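Usage

Read records sequentially. Each one opens with the input sequence:
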Amino acid sequence: MKAFRCGDVVPGCSREFTGADRHEILAQVAEHARTDHHVEVDASLVQAVEANLRER
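and closes with the structure output:
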């Protein structure tokens, strides 16, 4: 199980995500980024998320 905290990339954001693998996390984060931060996912965002993934 993987976990990611959006606040590790976007200061002040308290959303947390869990998933079986990085693909599940990235799908959740992409929707959150578009909906809540009005940001499209690009390579730098994917790198930032992957750098902050942790085992749960």
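Summary fields computed downstream for this record:
- The first helix runs from residue 22 to 36.
- The mean pLDDT is 97.
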